[in-house]
User: Which sequence fits this backbone?
């Protein structure tokens, strides 16, 4: 019934007013569509960009899987009677992990701890090395500072290691 009343009211208006009402309704309709569709379009573009980035990340992770697999299984545990110095253990482990070139030095810090520096080291290999030193050699990571290196996946790191108690 209200639609009929609106139609009757509209028919009573002057032709000029009817034209204004029609154009006004079109403008209001267009504004509402834009108000609804533009945020949806922006969200769709953003979602597509995120999907693309996630696909690139997944591909990079798949490429790194081969590097980690090439690093091989963890080193066998050192014999309890083995009295190698901490510097020798770290140096040997770094070379065996493929980080010989990235291993730039170490410095004793007191109480048997050692601060070790890596420059432009492959992040995944560095994590594997630290895991092995911790689990197989019984070393404790006391402090670590890791910053981005020169290219994706490469880092500069300073790690303080101490024999576990």
Assistant:
């Amino acid at each position: 019934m209200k639609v009929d009343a609106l139609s009757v009211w509209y028919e009573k208006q002057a032709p000029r007013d009817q034209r204004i009402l029609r154009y006004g309704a079109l403008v209001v309709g267009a504004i509402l569509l834009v108000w609804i569709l533009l945020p949806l379009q922006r969200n769709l573009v953003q979602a597509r960009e995120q999907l693309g980035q996630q696909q690139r990340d997944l591909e990079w992770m798949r490429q790194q899987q081969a590097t980690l697999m090439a690093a091989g299984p963890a080193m066998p545990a050192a014999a309890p009677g083995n009295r190698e110095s901490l510097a020798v253990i770290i140096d040997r482990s770094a070379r065996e992990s493929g980080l010989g070139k990235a291993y730039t030095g170490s410095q004793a810090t007191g109480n048997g701890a050692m601060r070790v520096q890596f420059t432009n080291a492959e992040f995944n290999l560095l994590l594997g090395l630290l895991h092995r030193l911790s689990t197989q050699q019984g070393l404790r990571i006391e402090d670590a500072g890791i910053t981005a290196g020169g290219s994706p996946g490469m880092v500069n790191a300073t790690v303080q290691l101490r024999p576990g108690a």
